[in-house]
């Protein structure tokens, strides 16, 4: 007998305020859309799990939860993460899920936020409509960054912003490329005669540690030391935005319906 579950996986956060607005809100959205399904949740960051446990908040990691679901007799597992791109964390999770492939009749994972050109355009549309700019003002979104080749996704975001008519929107990263010096140089090239006012926003699912420290403190200070006025720091995680949630929901639905075909499957059609 088929027994299926949806597994939502996040890096996690210790900040209750942003967790309620993002991780908890997304779970409620999934539970409403899949009312007949069992929905579970796991965090990938062992450090965050440990810190939450010390506060009496218990979160499982993916392998612990998969083992539990196996023991409970689930046969079909559909996973959706809140990862932004195909980076190291996403690839590691794929490997963990693959280790349980023989334990279930089916285990499928949805794509991260940015996995197709259409995804990029939808994200740009959602963010562009949410933050209108005025003359001599720029918006700088700052992601986490990764050593994985998928870090190029941030540069593509900036390109799509520009192509879709949102040239005052820039992209930076905390631990990848472009970092602050590259973003600063790009703004100076686009605005050679005067310094525009700057709005800083996280390009992260949750507005947690990185948003409240690296962005609201370090990046703000760096821009001010460069002579810019930071008019606002908006600590809003991407997971708070309904249109962004909808993209993740679309990817989950595609995984369930097997709509995304692999490159191998695509090549078979051409041969």
Automatic annotation (TrEMBL):
Tagged with keyword Metal-binding: yes
Alphabetized GO MF terms: metal ion binding; sirohydrochlorin cobaltochelatase activity
Species of the source: Fusobacterium gonidiaformans 3-1-5R
Keywords tagged on the record: Cobalt, Metal-binding
Taxonomic superkingdom: Bacteria
Any GO BP annotation: anaerobic cobalamin biosynthetic process
A Pfam family the protein falls into: CbiK
Cross-referenced InterPro entries: Anaerobic_Co-chelatase
Binding positions (Co(2+)): 144, 175, 210
Catalytic site: 144
Highest classification ranks of the organism: Bacteria, Fusobacteriati, Fusobacteriota, Fusobacteriia, Fusobacteriales
Signal peptide (UniProt feature, chain positions): none
Protein's UniProt keywords contain S-adenosyl-L-methionine: no
Protein's UniProt name: Putative sirohydrochlorin cobaltochelatase
Membrane spanning residue stretches: none
């Amino acid at each position: 007998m088929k027994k299926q579950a949806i597994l939502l996986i996040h890096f996690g956060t210790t900040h209750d305020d942003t967790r309620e607005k993002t991780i908890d809100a997304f779970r409620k959205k999934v539970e409403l859309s899949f009312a007949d399904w069992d929905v579970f949740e796991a965090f990938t960051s062992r450090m965050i799990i440990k810190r939450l446990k010390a506060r009496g908040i218990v979160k499982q990691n993916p392998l612990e939860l998969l083992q539990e679901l196996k023991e409970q007799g689930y046969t079909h597992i559909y996973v959706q993460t809140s990862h932004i791109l195909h980076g190291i964390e996403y690839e590691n999770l794929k490997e963990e899920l693959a280790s349980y492939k023989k334990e279930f009749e089916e285990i499928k994972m949805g794509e991260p936020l940015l996995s197709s050109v259409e995804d990029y355009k939808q994200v740009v549309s959602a963010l562009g409509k949410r933050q209108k700019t005025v003359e001599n003002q720029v918006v700088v979104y700052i992601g986490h960054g990764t050593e994985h080749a998928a870090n190029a996704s941030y540069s593509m975001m900036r390109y799509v912003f520009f192509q879709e008519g949102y040239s005052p929107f820039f992209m930076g990263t905390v631990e990848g490329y472009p970092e602050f010096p590259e973003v600063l140089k790009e703004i100076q090239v686009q605005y050679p005669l005067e310094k525009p006012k700057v709005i800083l926003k996280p390009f992260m699912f949750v507005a947690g540690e990185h948003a409240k420290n690296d962005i609201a403190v370090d990046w703000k200070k760096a821009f001010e030391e460069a002579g810019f006025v930071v008019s606002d720091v908006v600590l809003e995680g991407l997971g708070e935005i309904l249109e962004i949630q909808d993209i993740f929901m679309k990817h989950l639905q595609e995984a369930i319906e097997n709509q995304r075909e692999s490159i191998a499957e695509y090549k078979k059609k051409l041969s």
